[in-house]
Design brief:
This protein is mainly alpha-helical. Among the domains are: about 120 residues, no CATH class; about 30 residues. Helices cover about 70% and strands about 5% of the residues. It has 13 helices and four strands. The strands form two sheets. The protein has a two-stranded antiparallel sheet. A hairpin with a 2-residue loop joins strand 1 and strand 2. Helix 6 crosses helix 7, helix 9 runs parallel beside helix 11 and helix 10 runs antiparallel to helix 11.
Length: about 300
């Protein structure tokens, strides 16, 4: 979660639109508050649907799936049961709008990162604005087609959250380790960061290939190298994949940094490394608006919720 809120480009785009640095720093912290309530949004409708389905005289029935019920269709089933025709259309429109906004944001982020941070920086540095505009357009087309193909990949899993956590385990976990070291350790080198990212992702792939969720078939869900360990659920496998990816990236980045020479001076790292950056003073800001206070409260809430529902 920390890696997603603070390093995911889709979230960072929101922070870039803030009116000042204080507002930008509060963006991921404020986003963490409703994010912590997300399990309630998933669990509460499911509990209501189970109770209604089990009522002897009720006409609410969940669709069957294999030997049990299809809990992934709880929200659509409840919408069709409770909403009249007009409200049902509004409810389905709201669902589609939420899907489309997320899709548009991710495609835009993919477009921007590839065009400016990869293509312009490493492939063609002297292109015209029209050239980069065309590259961005084709990148958008590819991103949409790729996401359509990813839907077939996601269909093999029980729910979309398992797929998201699997992707985060491969991508966000090692990236978060790189960001932590880059922001708080001036000795980190570019070669070390690259090596850590690559080997962290490789570690995630190896762990995924050697493990498998319970009752799953070897293949897209894991075990494609050899089944060395079986996890009780796909989410448990995802968490351990992220742990291996983060730890490998963290350790490799440190070792390679110590073995390679620094290419940036302290002056060049000012504004990038925490210890070399002038601290923001917020004496004129109300105490309840300061990011440190917000962050402490959110962190305590996260710890309490994890203890209560461990």
């Amino acid at each position: 979660s920390f890696g997603y809120w603070c390093t995911d480009f889709l979230v960072i785009q929101r922070a870039m639109a803030a009116k000042d640095m204080g507002a930008a720093r509060r963006t991921p912290i404020l986003a963490a508050i409703p994010k912590m309530l997300f399990p309630a949004l998933v669990i509460a409708p499911g509990m209501i649907a189970i109770a209604m389905h089990s009522m002897a005289d009720g006409d609410f029935r969940l669709p069957a799936k294999g030997d049990g019920l299809d809990y992934d269709l709880v929200v659509p089933t409840m919408l069709s049961y409770y909403f009249p025709t007009g409200m049902l259309g509004i409810g389905l429109t709201a669902l589609m709008a939420s899907f489309m906004s997320g899709m548009a944001g991710n495609v835009t982020a993919f477009n921007t990162v590839f065009t400016y941070d990869i293509y312009q920086s490493y492939i063609k540095k002297d292109g015209s604005d029209r050239h980069y505009l065309n590259v961005g357009r084709w990148t958008t087309v590819f991103g949409i087609l790729f996401s359509m193909g990813a839907a077939y990949f996601a269909a093999a899993f029980n729910n979309i959250m398992d797929v998201l956590q699997l992707v985060f385990a491969f991508v966000n976990a090692p990236l978060f380790a790189t960001f932590l070291l880059g922001m708080f350790w001036r000795r980190t080198t570019g070669h070390a960061a690259f090596a850590g990212l690559v080997l962290g992702t490789v570690a995630a792939a190896i762990h995924h290939g050697l493990s498998l969720p319970e009752k799953a078939v070897a293949g897209i869900k894991g075990g494609w190298l050899s089944i060395q360990h079986v996890y009780p659920s796909e989410m448990a496998q995802n968490f351990w994949t992220a742990i291996w990816a983060w730890s490998t990236c963290f350790v490799i980045t440190i070792l390679v940094s110590l073995a390679t020479k620094r290419t940036k001076t302290d002056d060049e790292l000012r504004g990038l490394v925490y210890s070399l950056t002038e601290k923001i003073k917020e004496h004129d800001t109300a105490w309840w608006k300061r990011p440190a206070v917000f962050g402490t409260v959110v962190l305590l809430c996260a710890v309490v919720l994890n203890i209560l529902f461990f």
